[in-house]
Amino acid sequence: MFRIKEVVSPTFIEAAALVVAIVTIINVSILQFGSVPHLPILFSILLLICYGLIKKVPYRKLEGGLVDGAGAGMSAVFLFFFIGILVSSWIMSGTIPTLIYAGFNLITPSFFFAIVFVVTAIVGISIGSSLTTVATVGVAFIGMATMLDLSLAIAAGAIVSGAFFGDKMSPLSDTTNLASSIVGVDLFEHIRNMAWTTIPAFVLSLIIFGLLSPSGTLTDVDKIAYFQDGLLDTGMIHWYTVIPLVILFALTILKVPALMALAISSASAIAVSYFHQSFSAVEVFEILFNGFVSTTGIADIDALLTRGGMQSMMFTIGLVLLALSMGGLLFTLGIVQCLLAKIESVLKKVSSVIFASALTAISINVLIGEQYLSILLTGQAFQSQYEKVGLAGKNLSRVMEDAGTVVNPLVPWSVCGIFISGMLGVATLDYLPFAFFCLLSPILTVLLGFTGKTLTYLTDDKVKI
């Protein structure tokens, strides 16, 4: 989308006023009136179209901006379709039920949130996808937290923190590869440089989650045993049901494209399901499209296992297309370019360049709700500025991830925010205060920018400590 050319050059006052109006429309609609984010984004699109017509921009060009913006997200749309299929197939195969059952045997309430954070971080690094991690093991952990009567908001915060730590630090992650490639930095050099901010954020988050975890031992053993017995009665708890998970890990390590890896893992899950239950072809198609429907008679189990399917992704896909269409209009009307040019003109020092680039990445996440755009635009806008103040490119790629990748799940109307809240059943604003890793990462990257620590300069290519 960053290649979309502007057809009009607005003044800074006009651009700023439009941005303020859009943010106000979205925030008031969602926070004050409880609207789904689709409507305020659609209203914002109409506002931008009216502005374009007032500036005498041909409607066809405005329509082209909408189409170009939406087109930038088509790969994500297909990925979401296959994530929906993956979730439903993993339930019918017994993969997710088995993970939940095994989790009850391994996890303790004394360190519950810390364990959730660590496990999701490991899975996230292994598969390189925060959303897949949330949709699989994240769903399992939410089920455990429900049965243990623990805070779902803190549990979701731990899941999101671990998943995005893994996504950020995994060489298999698309955002990690994108951030390093935008500024021409070696992938593993980029990951090593991120450790300066990521490891402290991880350790601090782990300590906090450990402190927030309840003390003592399980008191309601009968309730947990009842839940486990209910899972066993489904007939889906078997050792071989983890095969789809192993296949997903293996394909990811082999760098098979995410869409193909999800498709193959889903196909293997369907095959595994026939080891313990027989579905007709009609039932399989129904499950893959509308999701799996659990009928155990145990409300908590049925609520947990009734999910997935392509249909469950339609809400998210609609939001993605609307948000990216709005982004396309913002570029077509020159609003984003105008604001970025204004920011660049006031950059004089190393600290101000890092702060401005971090703020830009965060702002794009809030305004457009798309993490890829926050990485792309920040990299495009600030690469020359980093060079002017003598900073090596890997400093910028680190900021792009610290303030771009991990901030997206904290925005209620963002792609990740909507997806995660839908998968976990916890509102974005509820888990936001507890997504400690995502909150600490941008803070640490800005603090290091102001202190000058861990920065690499072009002159000697050495880290300044």
Describe the structure in your own words.
The protein has helices at 12-32, 38-54, 59-71, 74-93, 95-106, 112-127, 130-147, 152-169, 174-182, 187-212, 221-233, 243-253, 258-273, 281-290, 299-305, 314-332, 335-344, 350-368, 371-388, 393-405, 415-424, 428-431, 436-451; strands spanning 455-456, 463-464. By secondary structure, it is mainly alpha-helical. The relative contact order is 0.16. It has a domain at 75-309. The longest helix has 26 residues, at 187-212. A hairpin with a 6-residue loop joins strand 1 (455-456) and strand 2. It has a two-stranded antiparallel ribbon with strand order 1-2. The two termini are 37 Å apart. Helix 5 packs across helix 7 (130-147).
Structural class: mainly alpha
Number of strands: 2
Q: What characterizes the major β-sheet?
A: 2 strands, antiparallel
Instruction: Give the strand order, joined by hyphens, for the main sheet.
Output: 1-2
Oligomer: single chain
- Summed over residues and divided by their number, the pLDDT gives a mean of 84
In percent terms, what proportion of residues is strand? Answer: under 5%
Number of helices: 23
Rounded to the nearest angstrom, the radius of gyration is: 23 Å
Distance between the termini: 37 Å
Order of helices and strands: HHHHHHHHHHHHHHHHHHHHHHHEE
- What is the share of helical residues? over 70%
Task: Write down the overall geometry.
Answer: globular
Residue stretches low in confidence (pLDDT < 50, at least 5 long) are: none
Question: Which short descriptors sum up this protein?
Answer:
mainly alpha, 465 residues, 23 helices, two-stranded antiparallel sheet, single chain, 1% strand
